[in-house]
Design brief:
The complex is a heterodimer of chains A (313) and B (471). Chain A has 313 residues and is mainly alpha-helical. Chain A has one domain. Chain A is built from 15 helices and no strands. The radius of gyration of chain A is 19 Å and the shape is globular. By secondary structure, chain B is α+β, with helices and mostly antiparallel strands. Among the domains of chain B are: 232 residues, no CATH class; 61 residues, Dna Ligase, domain 1. Chain B has a five-stranded mixed sheet with strand order 3-23-22-19-18. About 1% of the residues of chain B have low confidence. The chains are: A mainly alpha (313), B alpha+beta (471). At the A-B interface, helix 1, helix 5 and helix 6 of A face helix 2, helix 9, strand 7 and strand 9 of B.
């Protein structure tokens, strides 16, 4: 396969996944903000959403205060934000269009339909009171794409690059969503383990569609370290870091098998995966949740660079 | 204008045989149904992403070429005549190009002014003496044909460089099959969907002399900003070959490779859809970002084939066009089957005088122009426009030719006012490799505006499916 084609497929999948992930991040923000009473706390939640999305720089270049509408606009449709949902959909379509030959008709139609519908959206579709519809719509489109890929692609290198991109992006997102909690300040009179804290953890679970999974896995009431355990270490939870990296490793192994050679990217992926596979949540909390998450996000970036070096350029 | 033209379906009550069922179908089908089908077709085109880009105007950069749901029908006798003529013409064109880069016998015999060839922008001195596989230069030729009477066809233009539009021929049929399965079955329309297989066979048959194994064929595109990008990706997909851009290719030791996820892989045949000037920054335009440095050297060394060959354009310029009938006689010793439109060369004194005297009746074309740009349609122009154009002709007479305004044939077409006759042309595609191959059909372009003779998609033209039926 052409390296450029592989690169297109990899990024097509990443952008579609990122569109969904930004929607999920915004969903956490909305849920947390709806718990706030004081305006200061409100801003803190929106600030944390922007930080977790990795969009601090682009946001504060244009806005002074993280108001709900400003954050929503920036993350959904600001063309100056390369990670805004519409930017992702636009770039995904560009990648798909460049490689019409590398993807199936169903995948193309999923991406193209998303883009055509996105262009027909009006200002009011992005208003705070309507944004839920939009976020559901984004999830819908991304799931359709992922379903089309899973249901129609040949199981060869093209498929592995798509899945690799998806898993890598998803890992990044899960780490970031968990990190939102770190950035959100609890108001002074609220304590860790208090009502607000409890609802914030719930919001995180719901944003990754894992509330039911939590109860099914732990059969326990909500405890912060178990939420972290579920989203970091549990292999059966599809958006957990452990599950994502197990996929990354699996697809990289498939590629190594097909092409008959391994590289630095395989070593790094194996290293991250081992750490998650054999890790314990107590140790992670001892080292500091935020520190561990930051480290994984950084390692993930290095891994992406190595994959590019090995296959995509 | 439409009144004087030959209508391919025939006048009301005297329907021509190939259209008998179409006539009945049109009478039976209510306008609302046609409108519904038209919209459905548009929806399919947009969903599949069959768009083309028009850069000169504002608005949506990705537009659909309007598709007319009423097919254009040719019977098998008409097609047999056309294909014989096309085969002959393309043979002569290839012989001419080979000659121009070889012995130049046509020049020596005084059949054409030397400077017309040697100073032609399509003539590449870099191609002189290059050994070309099977001496084929134009592997894919698109010959534009117009019709003025039941048995009167004229070649309007030869496209020997990188003719486009064949994906519309294929997709139009695909859409018609989805919209009107019955109608197609009843007509026993000859299939066209094997075109990509024929193209691939053609490309494989012109592998370079140093290719000893199964040739690796790729399609080289300028990229997704190109207006024909959809076609490039469609054809690559249908042929099951890689769609590459210049950045994907690299030349090492006179061999062309593509960069793949497994490392470098050798490439033998390149169906290139970028213009000569952009092929190789080391030889042609140094600022080209689309081409591949060193590819011409690899070509000359016999390590890679380029299709169509660089320099094929020396045969398809509008001034050279007037000599094609003579090429048929000279190279093949035959009388041309397909006629040229009578043409005056403004570069010759009598021609110029005649053209300036008869501007109001003539179509004047810039010999280097394409896509319907840079031309004057005398009968439709104002006196002021004609005067301005006359000045341009006087300034560079060699740059212009003139032809009578032909009464192009019309076909029934579904327009806002219902079904009405509109002018059409036809572009069949001729494939040349070890043998000459044609699929029965081509691209029918239709001028959607009433009375208009300009069928170019960039100027409001649409397309129709072209049916060759048994009869």
């Amino acid at each position: 396969m052409l390296s450029r084609t592989a690169d297109n497929l990899f990024w097509l999948a990443r952008y579609m996944e990122r569109a969904e992930d930004v929607a999920r991040l915004l969903d956490v923000g909305l849920r947390m903000a709806s718990l706030s009473l004081e305006s200061v706390a409100d801003e803190s939640e929106w600030h944390s959403t922007i930080t977790a999305a990795g969009c601090e720089e682009s946001f504060y270049a244009k806005h002074r205060v993280p108001s709900a509408q400003a954050v929503i606009d920036h993350l959904t449709r600001d063309p100056d934000n390369p990670s805004s949902i519409l930017s992702c959909l636009r770039k995904a379509r560009r990648n798909a269009r460049t490689d019409r030959t590398g993807i199936t008709t169903d995948m193309w139609e999923a991406v193209n339909a998303a883009w055509i519908e996105a262009r027909a959206l009006r200002d009011e579709d992005f208003a705070l009171e309507n944004i839920r519809h939009f976020l559901d719509w984004v999830k819908d489109k991304a799931l359709r794409f992922s379903g089309a890929a899973g249901g129609t692609m040949l199981r060869n290198d093209a498929y592995w690059f798509v899945r690799l991109g998806m898993a890598l992006e998803r890992a990044d997102n899960t780490a970031r969503i968990l990190d939102v909690k770190y950035h959100v300040l609890l108001p002074g009179h609220e304590s860790i383990g208090g009502t607000r804290d409890y609802y914030q953890w719930t919001s995180i679970l719901r944003s990754v569609s894992a509330q039911r999974a939590y109860h099914w896995v732990y059969r326990d009431r909500l405890k912060p370290w178990l939420v972290a355990d579920l989203l970091i270490l549990r292999p059966e939870m599809p958006r957990s870091l452990a599950a994502c990296f197990s996929e990354v490793v699996r697809h990289l192994d498939k590629l190594a098998e097909a092409y008959g050679s391994r590289g630095e990217c395989h070593r790094i992926a194996g290293q991250i995966h081992a750490r998650l596979r054999y890790g314990k949540i107590e140790e992670i909390f001892q080292q500091g949740l935020h520190e561990v998450l930051t480290e994984i996000i950084d390692q993930n970036i290095v891994l992406g660079r190595e994959i590019t070096r090995q296959y995509l350029s | 204008m439409a009144r004087d033209s030959f209508d391919e379906m025939g006048p009301a009550g005297a329907c021509r045989a190939p259209y008998a069922q179409i006539d009945r179908w049109l009478l039976e089908t209510p306008t609302e149904t046609m409108e519904l089908k038209r919209r459905e077709a548009e929806f399919i085109f947009r969903r599949t992403g069959i768009t083309f880009a028009v850069y000169t105007e504002g608005g949506d950069p990705e537009r659909l070429i309007p598709f007319d749901v009423i097919p254009r029908v040719l019977d098998s006798h008409e097609w047999a005549f056309l294909s014989r003529g096309l085969e002959q013409r393309v043979k002569a064109l290839n012989a001419f190009i080979a000659d121009m880069y070889g012995e130049q016998a046509f020049l020596k015999a005084g059949k054409i002014p030397r400077e017309l060839v040697l100073t032609n922008p399509g003539f590449l001195k870099e191609m002189v003496g290059v050994e070309v596989p099977r001496r084929v230069y134009t592997h894919v030729a698109g010959i534009d044909i117009v019709r003025v009477a039941p048995d009167e066809f004229y070649v309007l233009e030869d496209n020997c460089r990188t003719p486009s539009g064949v994906s519309y021929m294929l997709e139009n049929r695909e859409v018609m099959t989805r919209l009107f399965p019955d109608l197609l079955t009843r007509h026993r329309v000859k299939p066209v969907s094997h075109y990509p297989d024929e193209l691939l066979e053609t490309l494989r048959s012109v592998a370079p002399r140093n290719c000893k194994a199964d040739p690796t064929v790729v399609l080289l595109t300028p990229g997704h900003f190109n207006s024909a990008y959809y076609e490039h990706s469609f054809l690559a997909d249908e042929m099951g070959i890689e769609l590459v851009e210049g950045v994907d290719l690299v030349v090492q030791d006179l061999v062309v490779y593509m960069r793949t996820t497994r490392g470098l892989q050798r490439v033998d045949v390149i169906y290139r859809r970028i213009d000569d000037g952009f092929l190789d920054p080391a030889v042609f335009r140094p600022d080209s970002m689309l081409g591949v440095r060193g590819i011409m050297a690899a070509y000359r060394a016999g390590n890679v084939s380029l299709c169509n060959a660089p320099g094929a354009g020396v045969s398809d310029d509008k001034a050279i066009y007037t000599y094609v009938p003579e090429m048929v006689r000279f190279y093949l010793g035959e009388e041309p089957i397909l006629r040229n439109v009578p043409t005056w060369r403004c570069g010759e004194a009598e021609g110029l005088a005649y053209v300036l005297d008869h501007l109001a009746e003539l179509v004047v074309k810039d010999v280097a122009g394409s896509g319907g740009y840079g031309m004057l349609v005398g009968p439709h122009a104002t006196a002021a426009e004609r005067a301005a154009f006359a000045e341009k002709i006087r300034a560079t007479p060699h740059g212009y030719i003139a032809q009578p305004t032909l009464a192009l044939s019309t076909c029934p077409t579904f327009v806002a006012s219902g079904v009405a006759p509109r002018h059409v042309d036809l572009r069949p595609y001729v494939l040349v490799g070890r043998e000459i191959r044609l699929v029965p059909g081509g691209l029918t372009r239709v001028a959607l505006r009433e009375g208009s003779l300009v069928v170019n998609s960039s100027q409001g033209g649409g397309t129709k499916d072209t049916w060759v039926v048994d009869a």
